[in-house]
TrEMBL record:
It comes from Mucilaginibacter agri. It is found in: Cell membrane. One of its GO terms (cellular component) is cytochrome complex. One of its GO terms (molecular function) is oxidoreductase activity, acting on diphenols and related substances as donors, oxygen as acceptor. It is a multi-pass membrane protein. The keyword DNA damage does not apply. The keyword Signal does not apply. GO terms for biological process: aerobic electron transport chain. Its main location: membrane. Belongs to the cytochrome ubiquinol oxidase subunit 2 family. It comes from the Bacteria. InterPro entries: Cyt-d_oxidase_su2. The chain crosses the membrane at residues 6-34, 55-74, 80-99, 119-139, 159-183, 204-222, 228-252, 259-280, 307-327. This is Cytochrome d ubiquinol oxidase subunit II.
Length: 340
């Protein structure tokens, strides 16, 4: 049953990165769009993500619940020593959701719409940034559980080049996913070209931050190169992701919407396999050389069995409803929304 739970945890993180990533990426694209074109990006983003944006966070909630119930020591360590970036990320999620609701559904359209817009775009940037920071910190061996200093225990473990490089890479990846998704949401060729250009810029930025990430890992003594190229599985997935990127751009140029979305999902899946396989089942690497493992630091067996059964039964209800939600809103014609 433990492997069922680990599978649910990994898939939840993957889907949140894909769906939530494209969701956050819409705000990131709006942030880096010229003022004259912001309203068009805003309207397109609303029509694409408006109906289902809140459902994306379900996957993050599932991952948190799995860690809390199934791996309490992992949950405790991360929530204590990385509580600062965690709080910032959660505040970003709350601020973004609030601003999204008010800027699209507020009965009164006044100057507060500008405030909502700014909160929305900046929180869309901050949230994936600190999500990446948390992920990078968990495997960077910076978490010092033996420290007696506030800074070394609660700041230096995440405030470093490697963690922020992972964060900025995550931001550009989200922007890239959003641009790819939004290409298929517009009909006229001018708009398609605009989102293709955004995809190019985000792709370039993503590659630049990937290089910076490797440099930061070397500077901080983190064996990222060995993780990605030191075993056959990670190596094959990295090669597959690189090849998929080529076919992705072919599909974008040919305006093959379904294919390019599938390839984008495949590419992200390969990247996530590559970065998690090398140190599996270890999920948190500590400064003192210890690791927190999904196999060795799990809850009692009765808890694991109950959690696994609950996840399996819950998926029978949640997944069909979610797929129907996506299907139904994909079929309906979008109404006209008010935007400033």
């Amino acid at each position: 049953m433990i492997y069922v739970i680990i599978g649910f945890l990994w898939v939840s993180l993957l889907i949140y990165l894909l769906m939530g990533g494209a969701d956050f990426g819409a705000g990131i694209l709006e942030l880096f769009t010229a003022k004259d074109n912001k309203s068009h990006v805003r309207k397109t983003s609303y029509q694409a993500i408006g109906p289902i944006w809140e459902a994306n966070h379900m996957w993050l909630i599932i991952a948190v619940v799995i860690l809390f119930v199934g791996f309490p020591q992992v949950y405790t360590t991360v929530s204590v020593y990385l509580h600062i970036p965690l709080v910032i990320m959660l505040m970003g999620i709350i601020a973004r959701g609030t601003a999204f609701s008010f800027r699209n559904y507020d009965a009164i359209k006044d100057n507060m719409q500008r405030v909502y817009n700014k909160i929305y775009v900046y929180s869309s940037f901050i949230t994936p940034l600190f999500l990446g920071v948390i992920a990078g910190s968990a495997v960077s061996r910076k978490i010092d559980t033996e420290s007696n200093s506030f800074l070394s225990a609660y700041v230096y473990d995440w405030f470093n080049w490697f963690s922020f490089s992972v964060g900025f890479f995550t931001v550009t990846l989200c922007g890239f996913l959003a641009a790819i998704f939004l290409v298929g949401e517009v009909k006229d060729e001018i708009s398609k070209q605009a989102f293709r250009r955004k995809a190019v810029k985000m792709n370039v930025a993503m590659l630049i931050w990937a290089v910076i990430l490797f440099v930061a890992s070397i500077a901080d003594g983190i064996p990222l190169l060995n993780w990605l190229f030191g075993n056959i599985i990670s190596l094959l997935t990295i090669i597959s992701a690189a090849i998929a990127l080529v076919f992705l751009w072919i599909a974008i140029v040919k305006d093959q919407v379904a294919i390019m979305r599938l390839i984008a999902g495949f590419m992200v899946t390969m990247l996530l396999i590559a970065v998690t396989y090398a140190h599996y089942p270890n999920i948190v690497l500590l400064k003192n050389g210890d690791e927190l493992s999904l196999l060795n630091h799990k809850a009692p067996q009765k808890t694991i069995d109950s959690l696994g059964i609950a996840l399996l039964i819950g998926s029978l209800f949640i997944l069909p409803a979610l797929f129907y939600l996506v299907y139904s809103f994909g079929k309906r014609k979008h109404g006209t929304a008010h935007h400033n």
